[in-house]
């Protein structure tokens, strides 16, 4: 893969649009793929409006429904919602050729099992990202601060492919590195999302506001203790104190403090269903199947689903 490449973003919401914007600025041929018609139409008619650390600009970048993209890409980045992953993979078959790398940077647990049903193992690269972005409205994103990416090829023989993707991302300023244990990285990211995403959504607050609550550390610890117990089933060790320290740092306004997590954006701001079943719900379901008590994650999952019943349109 050359540094300049054909790249398709599968799921062009807040994060997908930010990555598409940064990768196109670096000279790549980028296309945004999304099923939100108003979002796609706005981008094509007016451009993508980007509030980049206080500076607003409009960039021209093509956007299409996933099924409409037939050209094989060098790289496909999966940013769709986990509950929509199977449909997305069906829709984008035409973009994946014999040399296409498929990078999953989605939130949630269990994504690789789904991707392997549609994509050859040697093509799959999985990662976690600490970049943030917010969807202001159709065709309009806003973000501040920086971030990073850790990624790894799931086929041990394909490290060269992953290294080329790292180079491609870094040429766009996306601060990517090769991970040696991406499974643990994914669980750690899920721990962060399983506390901040779900609790900020239920409490209708941003990360800084959550961190200022006197109850925050104990609530987070109870949730994380259950994550750690279930993670052991997959031979993953979670240091709860380490995650709590990370959460505290993220609450700083120089980091992600002013950011409303993606679940809050989906449910509270845009009245869309969430990925709760692939975060707290995943822990609750796997815990129940293996005799591990998960009362906090079970309750959080139930509360988010109840909130969905209240807010989500077309119930």
From TrEMBL:
Give the GO biological process terms.
pantothenate biosynthetic process
All copies of domain Ketopantoate reductase N-terminal, residue ranges: 7-154
GO MF assignments: 2-dehydropantoate 2-reductase activity; NADP binding
Q: In which pathway does it act?
A: Cofactor biosynthesis; (R)-pantothenate biosynthesis; (R)-pantoate from 3-methyl-2-oxobutanoate: step 2/2
| One Pfam family per UniProt | ApbA_C
Keywords, A to Z, come to:
NADP, Oxidoreductase, Pantothenate biosynthesis
Q: Which residues form the Ketopantoate reductase C-terminal domain?
A: 181-308
Domain of life, per the record?
A: Bacteria
Task: Supply the enzyme class, top level.
Answer: oxidoreductase
Q: Does the keyword Transmembrane apply?
A: no
Q: Which SUPFAM superfamilies match?
A: 6-phosphogluconate dehydrogenase C-terminal domain-like, NAD(P)-binding Rossmann-fold domains
Q: Which reaction does it catalyse?
A: (R)-pantoate + NADP(+) = 2-dehydropantoate + NADPH + H(+)
Q: Which GO terms describe its cellular component?
A: cytoplasm
Q: What is its EC number?
A: 1.1.1.169
UniProt keyword NADP present: yes
Q: Which InterPro entries match?
A: 6-PGluconate_DH-like_C_sf, 6PGD_dom2, ApbA, Ketopantoate_reductase, KPA_reductase, KPR_N, NAD(P)-bd_dom_sf
Question: What is stated as this protein's family in its record?
Answer: Belongs to the ketopantoate reductase family.
Q: What does this protein do?
A: Catalyzes the NADPH-dependent reduction of ketopantoate into pantoic acid.
Name this polypeptide is given: 2-dehydropantoate 2-reductase
Naturally occurring in which organism (per UniProt):
Lactobacillus selangorensis
For this protein's source organism, the top of the classification is: Bacteria, Bacillati, Bacillota, Bacilli, Lactobacillales
């Amino acid at each position: 893969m050359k540094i300049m490449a054909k790249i398709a973003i599968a799921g062009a919401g807040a994060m997908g649009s930010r990555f598409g914007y940064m990768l196109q600025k670096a000279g790549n041929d980028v296309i945004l793929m999304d099923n939100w018609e108003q979002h796609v139409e706005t981008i094509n008619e007016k451009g993508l409006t980007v509030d980049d650390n206080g500076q607003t600009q409009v960039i021209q970048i093509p956007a299409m429904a996933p099924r409409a993209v037939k050209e094989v890409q060098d790289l496909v980045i999966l940013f769709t919602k986990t509950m929509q992953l199977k449909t997305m993979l069906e829709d984008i078959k035409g973009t994946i050729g014999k040399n296409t790398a498929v990078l999953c940077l989605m939130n949630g647990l269990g994504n690789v099992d789904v991707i392997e049903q549609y994509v050859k193992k040697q093509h799959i690269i999985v990662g976690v990202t600490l970049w943030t972005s917010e969807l202001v409205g159709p065709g309009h994103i806003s973000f501040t601060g920086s971030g990073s990416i850790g990624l790894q090829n799931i086929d041990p023989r394909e490290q060269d492919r992953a290294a080329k993707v790292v180079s491609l991302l870094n040429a766009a300023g996306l601060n990517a590195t090769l991970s040696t244990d991406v499974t643990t990285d994914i669980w750690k990211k899920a721990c962060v999302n399983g506390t901040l995403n779900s609790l900020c959504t239920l409490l209708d607050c941003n990360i800084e506001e959550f961190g200022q609550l006197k109850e925050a550390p104990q609530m987070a610890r109870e949730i994380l203790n259950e994550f750690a117990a279930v993670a052991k089933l997959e031979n993953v060790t979670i240091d709860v104190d380490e995650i709590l320290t990370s959460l505290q740092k993220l609450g700083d306004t120089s980091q992600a403090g002013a950011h409303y997590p993606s679940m809050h954006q989906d449910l509270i701001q845009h009245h869309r269903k969430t990925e709760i079943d692939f975060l707290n719900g995943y822990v609750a379901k796997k815990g129940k199947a293996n005799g591990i008590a998960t009362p906090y994650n079970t309750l959080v999952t139930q509360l988010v689903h109840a909130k969905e019943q209240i807010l989500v349109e077309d119930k």
